[in-house]
Amino acid sequence: MPLDKHIDTVANQTKTNYDFDKMANSYDKWYDSAAGQMYDRLEKKAFNSLAGERNNGKQLLEIGCGTGHWSRYFSEKEFKVTGIDISREMIATASKKNIPHCHFQVADGQNLSFFDNSFDAAAAITTLEFSENPERIITEMARCVKPKGKLLFGVLNSLCPYNQKRQNNTEGMYAYAQLFSPQQLRSMLGQYGTVKFKVAGFVIRKKELLWLTPFWELLCHAVGGKKGAFIAAEVQL
After folding, report:
1. How many CB atoms within 10 Å of residue 161?
2. pLDDT tens column, 36-89
3. Whole-number pLDDT of residue 121
4. pLDDT score at 173
5. What is the CATH number of the domain that holds 153?
6. Which domain holds residue 109?
């Protein structure tokens, strides 16, 4: 299918806090690094513990799908994915990947054109942080999902020292992000249904010790650590 068939534009898009168009071609390089692969492994493991079941072709709306990295994960979980992002360049990159059972389009997650109860689930992975109105995105997601469906979130943890360090870099994209703690996230999501979440990404930053990270992650979970880099959350509507 021609690329332009994948891309639907919207007339009045709400700006995000950061222009992701300029990094669409380099975004996936993070996952080529040893640290990026480790974070990715732990984040997806956290999601598997919350919503690891097969989904048999259920419809999932992914807000802020970016280059389609997480879209592939949801596709492998047997969702049929509609991925949207406000960045045209990100959508172009995602579309070129030809991920099975995924359709991508340019759209604003704060003003969705989908009918009520159109999807079985909706997801937003590291999207709320860069939105001008994260509460609006959550409300729109809940509106578009059927009763007894679920919302899935991946959020950068404000309690994590590594995330705090990244925010202090005024030239990086994280300086534009609004991060959330587990408590803040639970408070935001609790009005929509039953919330489950897991803190993950307790990654050892020294390269020579990176291989010990899975053991460190297990230990941090055992003691109830709350300062991992990533929060995976599920809301059962």
Report:
1. 10
2. 999 999 999 999 988 667 788 999 999 999 999 999 999 999 999 999 999 999
3. 97
4. 82
5. 3.40.50.150
6. 51-200+226-236
DSSP state of 236: E
- Write out the two tokens for 109: 């997650």
Q: How far apart are CA 133 and CA 144, in angstroms?
A: 17
Q: In this predicted structure, what is the pLDDT of residue 17?
A: 58
Helix (H/G/I), strand (E/B), else coil: 225: coil
197, β-bridge pairs: 233
- Lookup: tokens for 96: 């070129």
- pLDDT lower than 50: segments of the chain: 1-14
Maximum separation of any 2 CA atoms in the chain, in Å:
51
DSSP 20: G
- Closest to 43 (Cα-Cα) out of 56, 54, 55, 30: 30
Q: Domain tally for the chain?
A: 1
What the block records as the tokens of 216 is 């460190």
